[in-house]
Amino acid sequence: MTSPLRVTETDETSGPARPQIAIQNPATGETIGHVPNLDPAGVGAIVDAARAAQPAWEALGFKARAALMRDMQAWLLRHRSEVVDAVVSENGKTREDALLAELYYVIDSFGYWAKRAEKILRPRTLRTHSPFLLGRKLMVERRALGVVGVIAPWNYPLTLSVGDAIPALMAGNTVVIKPSEITPLAIGVLVDAAREVGFPEGVLTVANGDGETGAALVDRADFIMFTGSTATGRKVGARCGERLIPCSLELGGKDPMIVLEDADVERAANVAVEWSMRNSGQICLSVERAYVTAPVYDEFVSKVTQKVRALRQGEPREEGSVDVGAITFPPQLDIIERHVDDAVAKGAKVLVGGKRGTGRGQFFEPTVLVDVDPTMACMTEETFGPTLPIMKVADEAEAIRLANDSPYGLGSSVFTKDLERGRRVAQQLVAGSTWVNDAIMSYLGQEAPMGGAKDSGLGARHGEQGITKYTRAHTILVTRFALRHEVTMFPNARPRSKVLDAIVVALFARPGRRKG
Ligand code: NDP
Q: Rounded to two decimals, what is the model's pTM?
């Protein structure tokens, strides 16, 4: 789809304070739309409107909010092609990736949180262990935080923006999304749709613009959900710390794959190719490096090479037209090229690909590298491109050591037919998620948290934490059977202190009980 997309009404009413941003189709180089580049005042106006809309939105209650989420599901089902067109044209990914990893995911998320939010966030009465609370009722309720700012990257424009907005909305917050400046159009389509199905004004809005626009949102929102690079994530986290607002940061990764000598090599090769090349490797959870034990190394390399050579790359048109699309973010091409060149200069061999595409659009050939080692950037820095460096290792222990030798800890995978061994290796890998004989798939199980260890982030999306993070706990204690004067109240008196001391000893110094 190449017809120019319009900007959202929200942006038009806020008014562009700076020159508009032109949006290009990365597969063709054509300009397909424009969005405003909001200055801090423009962001302030959007956040003020979101803040004004929040109390009524929270007061609507879970059932009414869930009904609107289901209306969005229905809208998305009716407008599948329109949404996929918008994603493909601004991101350059294949229609298959847009369908499964964006449209399907977002449709599923609307229903998932509509069904579960109330159960997770409902008020709870706690049975307390404390004898001092006898006759008192201890309750925890969850309150919305206010305005949640979602700052999104360009690799999954909908999943990593609207996907994170849904639980925030179900928790009773209003949401302002700051899309990546190079992929804002599909988000605009969904925000317009939300208004069409009846979301009240100000509940789900978009603040388009560049990094400065994102920083202005961090300065004003009550919670920040950020997905992007570790470098920017640190800045966002630091600013949230200064403002004492909570944030959740899903950052970069350098996911290792370990293939042990007892693996199903055919499956390992298929998963490696799929999840290093899908979306041109522009996934935070991509397989970015493979460690293969010596007995199966040659077989694995041969299978991977054959499969990568067979991939079809080009401008994504109709379904099935290509396997690998474009590189979305122009500077990413330089990073990918630098990693390949650095590896070759240090002795690596390119078995497939290795170069930028020629002609219009931004492409990098699906690339397989061998004879790589940990001194090379392709083994240590996030490449975010269609490359798979494969390193031979002696055994399981060396594979685990090298896999963990990284500042990142987002995902990791291990291949072995011995499932107990797989679980044991998984437990030794430092990562937010580990997959045995698989990659990435836990992302679709929204019951489980998805987050990062080390420099890969803080907090998580999905799981109970994926919605409780958008709330603050409010503890309420109700004293039902209240004495007018309790024994612990003033005045302090020595005999009473002795009784209390005896109670402490009676409670905690029982025979056989461990000290400390
Ligand atoms: P960034 O981390 O810079 O951008 C992510 C989002 O943050 C964008 O919306 C960006 O806006 C916004 N932003 C930029 N600066 C600030 C700021 N100071 N305060 C608040 N928000 C800000 O990622 P890039 O797009 O520059 O990509 C850089 C690298 O990050 C890639 O090479 C890749 O390695 C990695 N990456 C990781 C992703 C992941 O899923 N974990 C996703 C994308 C990239 P704008 O785009 O308008 O500048």
A: 0.95
